[in-house]
Amino acid sequence: MDHQISSGAKVITVDVHAAKNLLNSGHRYLDVRTVEEFEKGHVEKAFNIPYMFDTPQGRVKNPKFMEQVLSTCCKEDHLIVGCQSGVRSVYATSDLLKAEFKHVSNMGGGYIAWVENGFAVQKPKLEL
């Protein structure tokens, strides 16, 4: 499922199996869920930059998203972008492509699909 964006670049969506293979070959995983979602569990070695924040008025876009990504990544990095179910990550991937990131893919199905496939996740350690 490709989504055309105004710059002419297409958001490429890969399934979780393809994403896992790309991560094993050196891609980095950008988790765009909220910090709260990320802390409940995430793809191993993922880094978290929320695309949206939960507020009393509902979700709002993180105004510093691109600035935060650019402080962690360069435009040549190979990135897989994921969220909870694969919706926010499409928008985040689109924004990254518009900002001239060259190697960015959206992970279809998000963290939910990753877990459903039994792939490894990092979860918080329970205090005893």
TrEMBL record:
Gene3D superfamilies: Rhodanese-like domain. InterPro entries: Rhodanese-like_dom, Rhodanese-like_dom_sf, STR17/STR18/HARC1-like. GO terms for molecular function: catalytic activity. Pfam families: Rhodanese. Residues 23-123 form the Rhodanese domain. CDD domains: RHOD. PANTHER family: THIOSULFATE SULFURTRANSFERASE 18. This is Rhodanese domain-containing protein.
